């Protein structure tokens, strides 16, 4: 179905600004059993390694978080050979110690989405239960932490991301509840993206770039606005690019329990 001449082991979902740090880029349209992907997959070189990239919201940022075809996007990454999937995202802080400009390598998620998101590849007829207990890959997160340390970035080794449906931001009441649960950050895309990667026997890594304090409750700031989020994100995009380049430069393939998730999931 797909005649793709280039293959890549590492895939990245992110914003359109990431095209600039891929060298020798070739773009491919990948047909999937789940419909259209958000955009073409760009495959290029970083540190001599083939890396695949796709803007999850489309290159013109026209797809809302609830309308992203997560299944098609993840399946396409698997189709072109990816075993390791890096998911950078903008996120709000729910805790005072997690400051705008910080990076959080989340190790847990809480799904607070609803409605139209298709969140599994396994809809029958064979019953399949894929564990989400440790969705994010500890081995890939360890490498990311080492890379952040090399660069002297301000980061948090672990954290729980609560994923809301969007496109609206939280009310103050919702934000206060999320904070009271001890959850660290809030985002609109990490579910089901990361979980679907796990279903496909891939190693998922989350990199949450903190852009604001959610709803202004944690630090008594003004409630979050999209303009403010994008301003902080743009100001810190170079740190994120440097981190991704460092991770990929230091990356070496490894065997991982993530690659055998499916084996223990069938009834």
Topology, element by element:
Layout: E1 10-14, E2 23-28, E3 41-46, E4 49-55, H1 70-79, E5 84-93, E6 103-104, E7 108-112, H2 138-151, E8 155-156, E9 160-164, H3 172-180, E10 185-187, H4 190-199, E11 203-213, H5 226-250
Parallel strand pairs: 1-4, 1-5, 5-11, 6-8, 7-9, 9-10
Antiparallel strand pairs: 2-3, 3-4, 5-10, 6-11
Helix pairs in contact: 1-4, 2-5
Q: What does it look like?
A:
By secondary structure, the chain is an alpha/beta fold. It has a single domain, classed as Nucleoside phosphorylase domain (Rossmann fold, 3-Layer(aba) Sandwich), CATH 3.40.50.1580. The protein is built from 5 helices and 11 strands. Strands 1, 2, 3, 4, 5, 6, 7, 8, 9, 10 and 11 form an 11-stranded mixed sheet that branches. A hairpin with a 2-residue loop joins β3 and β4 (49-55). α1 runs parallel beside α4 and α2 (138-151) crosses α5. The protein is globular. The two termini are 30 Å apart. The mean pLDDT is 90.
């Amino acid at each position: 179905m797909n005649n793709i001449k280039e293959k890549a082991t590492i895939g990245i979902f992110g914003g359109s600004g990431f095209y600039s740090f891929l060298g020798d880029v070739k773009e491919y349209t990948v047909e999937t059993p789940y419909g259209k992907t958000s955009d073409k997959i760009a495959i290029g070189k970083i540190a001599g390694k083939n890396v695949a990239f796709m803007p999850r919201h489309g290159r013109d940022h026209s797809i809302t978080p609830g309308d992203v075809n997560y299944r098609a996007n993840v399946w396409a990454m698997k189709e072109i050979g990816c075993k390791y999937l890096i998911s950078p995202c903008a996120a709000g802080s729910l805790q005072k110690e997690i400051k705008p400009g910080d990076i959080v390598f989340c190790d847990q998620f809480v799904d607070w989405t609803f409605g139209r998101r298709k969140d599994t590849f396994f809809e029958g007829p064979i019953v399949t239960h894929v564990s989400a207990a440790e969705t994010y890959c500890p081995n890939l997160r360890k490498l990311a932490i080492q890379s952040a340390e090399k660069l002297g970035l301000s980061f948090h080794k672990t954290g729980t991301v609560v994923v809301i449906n969007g496109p609206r931001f939280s009310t103050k009441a919702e934000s206060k509840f999320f904070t009271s649960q001890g959850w660290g950050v809030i985002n609109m895309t990490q579910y089901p993206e990361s979980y679907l990667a796990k279903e496909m026997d891939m190693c998922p890594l989350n990199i949450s770039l903190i852009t604001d304090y959610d709803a202004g409750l944690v630090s008594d700031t003004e409630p979050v606005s999209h303009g403010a989020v994008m301003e902080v994100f743009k100001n810190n995009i170079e740190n994120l690019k440097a981190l991704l380049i460092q991770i990929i430069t230091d990356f070496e393939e490894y065997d991982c329990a993530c690659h055998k998730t499916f084996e223990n999931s069938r009834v």
